[in-house]
Amino acid sequence: MSNDASSPTFGRGRLPSSVKPRHYDVKITTDLVDLTFTGRVKTRLDILEAVSTITFHSVGLDLEDPQVMVFDGDTAHYVDVVNMEPDPKIQWVVLTLASVVRAGASAQLILDFKGNLSGSQAGYCRPKTPSGSASEYYAFTQLAPMAARRVFPCLDEPGLKATFAISLITDPNNVNLSNMPVVSETAYVVAGSEKSWKRTVFGVTPPMSTYIVAFATGPFTYRETSYQSPISGVIRPVRVYATSDMISQAGYSLEVAEKALPLYEQFFDLEYPLPKFDTFICSGFDAGAVENWGLIIGSPVSFLLDPKSRDFKSKLRVAHMQAHETAHMWIYPDWDCDARFLSERFKGGLTLDSKNSSHPIEVPDLDIDNVLEIFDGLSYAKGASVLRMLSAHVGQDQFWKGVSKYLKDHTYDSTVTKDLWDSLSAVTGIDVSDITDNWVTKIGFPVLTVSETGDGIHIRQDRFLETGPAQAEDNETIWNVPLNILTAAKDGVVSVDYKTVLRERETTIKLNKALPYKLNANTSGFYRVLYTGSAAEKIARLVGQKDTPLSVTDRVGLILDAIALAKANFTAVSESLAFLEHFRNEGDAIVWTTIAEGLNEVVDTWWEHEHISSMLASFQRDLFSPIAQRLGFKYSADEFVNVQSLRTCSITQAALAGDELVIQTLKTKFSEFMKSGDDSNIPGDLQVLTYSIANKYGTRTEYDFLKQLSKDSSSEPGRIAALLGIGASEDLSLAEETWKTYVREAIGGSDVSYIFVGLKTNPRTRRFLAEKFREDFDLLTKKFGGNYSFQILLRNSHEMLSTVEDHDAAKKFFETKTLDTILTRAAWVERSTEDLQQWLEKRDGSGKKTFAEDGGSSKCLIA
């Protein structure tokens, strides 16, 4: 509820700055039979400038009886509201007052409201309860990034923090949750209702943003532990809530939270500020998880783990999600620092930021229409990667001391990026903003081209675009680039210069070229490196050395760059694939997983070229089948994680490449499952692959079995694996049935996203998926528009296509980023098909020589 609507001070849809909220008192009655809610909100406002209007956010709510009471000195009086004007497009409401309220006064805005529980994943949502429950539905909130306005009238911008007092009026048998602990629960009478009700009053929150307000009501149960603060000695309860059908698999998530909380307190030197820590696992949740303060809400696949499972990927996923969301209780930017981060967040950030349609991390004057677009994977991934680069430059210990200072100095405050830079500068003595400014305020990132000179190396920076070398108008930014130069002495000792910064377009640096060297040590910088000529040849030989001085993160970065630079026409795709052959003796699972992802990118680009696809499959089998054969299918609880992960990667890639022995083994395991109902012989890490392979090479029988499993499985990972496997059938009549059952007739929720992933992964149904999406565009917009699901469905429906015709057919329906992806693939196919085919044919016809055996004659390679 802000002010003077006629002149917003920011972008379109941003509230004026003349009014600031101080406190919300929100009382909501939830009817899970009628699927409606009613409520009253009292909002205490500070008047910063004289106003005659009050503007606040509201969308999809019926508002009644607005009242404004003004507090001025020792007096209080009501001011008449002469008009209430909603603007559904901007999603705000303007109240016109009968008189001006002076600056320095305060006011209380009282509004009654009512709405319908949402079938999508934005606002106050209504997933179904498990069978046998007293009510068919329960309810929970999903308010990020700007859906609080769908639940109660408010000033719904992150910077407008206030305290919240939440009261829920519900069925007396329900368990009610919110950010704070329950203060009281009493019987309650709702006027005009013959039902029994109870009122649950929660404690008042610290100041916080509207998007992390959270509450839920339904037939929940919980598991509980506690932790003792290493700072104060206070013991706090830690709980995980879920419905009865899921709670038995919530133990591992609870264990991670119990261990993470004291570690984060010590790490940040700052105590967790709330009296309790809850996680609520919600079926149908589509955003992975949201870090609501004191009540994390997330999906079953993100937080559930069968206690008997040996599925390493699921265990890693749950541990990562719980630890990640727990860290958000202190700090918002996403953070990680190992090789797995590179293959997940870092890669995604580079990919998204290499598009012409990218955006800076920091976007001033943000319009309401762009919030969901800006609140995206790029903001997370690039933001995290820039922080990681900064940490390497200033030193990790100093970096985290600066972060701790920032958190202590700005507890409960709204902050801007400069506040973090100032804290880091104060601790490190380095002008941090000098390094970071262009990285957060400008679009894109550079590629550094490296060539050897007489006594060193020459380095030039240019903007990297996935469509190819940037034209002058797109290549104006000069980044301050920490070069992070790694060198290895003759005795094998590795040293890294983290202090040298490239501040101009190009420069020459002296170094001993006879010794191994590499830029961007540990891939800590958010940029790509293109090695040319003799520099490229040295890097290629270096990765193949038995005792290479390059770390896992170095090797992962080299592979990521190899594929990306070929895709962007900086190198030939044949050179990049030849480069991958140097890794045949590699032993690290994360490196092999990165190789697999790079090869899959090539395979998925040339999926409609039968001859090339066949030769690429042969190449994949040559790389991965020997590993799969050596490691076998037997998983052991006491084996190293690296072995387990490498087994999963190699079996998966061999199966996708058509290895007959691997495929037959997977089919046999699935057949035994169908006969016995016992899936214990299917390793959890291979569950999705097994289901998909069985359906791909199966008949209607396998399809129907998976369809039933998607409804009846007692294991949430098993149910999701079935949903993903359903899309693998090559029978288009079954694809039609899948679309009808899971998309057209579905109420909403995350199941549709899994179906889309299954269909897009299957080459046979990729174009089917795109056509069906356009055909049912209005229906999908109605079901999923305005939340995370719709963005995911948009991307998944078309991103695997790779012709100009596909781009033209999709143009009127899709956002620019999706179109960029299609055009990039199409350009890569048009430009590189002949090169790729010649290399594969030469390789197949020459005893499959490796690049090194073939003379290593590439003139241009990457890192």
Structure report:
The protein is 40% helix and 21% strand. By secondary structure, the chain is α+β, with helices and mostly antiparallel strands. Among the domains are: 1-214, Immunoglobulin-like, CATH 2.60.40; 219-330, Neutral Protease Domain 2 (Neutral Protease, domain 2); 339-441, Neutral Protease, domain 2; 446-555, Immunoglobulin-like (Sandwich), CATH 2.60.40.1910. Strands 6-5-9-3-2-12-15-14 form an eight-stranded mixed β-sheet, with no helix packed on it. Strand 2 (19-31) and strand 3 (36-47) form a beta hairpin. Helix 14 (610-631) packs antiparallel against helix 15 (641-656). The longest helix is centred in the last third of the chain and has 30 residues, at 816-845. The model is unreliable at 1-11, 332-342 and 847-863 (pLDDT under 50).
- Low-confidence spans: pLDDT under 50, at least 5 residues? 1-11, 332-342, 847-863
By DSSP (H or I, 4+ residues per run), the number of helices equals: 26
Number of strands: 31
CATH architecture identity of the domain at 1-214: Sandwich
Principal-axes geometry comes out as: globular
* Secondary-structure content class: alpha+beta
CATH topology grouping of the domain at 1-214:
Immunoglobulin-like
Described by strand count, sense and barrel closure, the largest sheet is: 8 strands, mixed
Identify the CATH class of the domain at 1-214: Mainly Beta
Question: For the record, what is the CATH homologous superfamily label of the domain at 1-214?
Answer: tricorn interacting facor f3 domain
Mean pLDDT: 88
* Order of strands across the main sheet: 6-5-9-3-2-12-15-14
How far apart the termini lie comes to 52 Å
Helix content: 25-40%
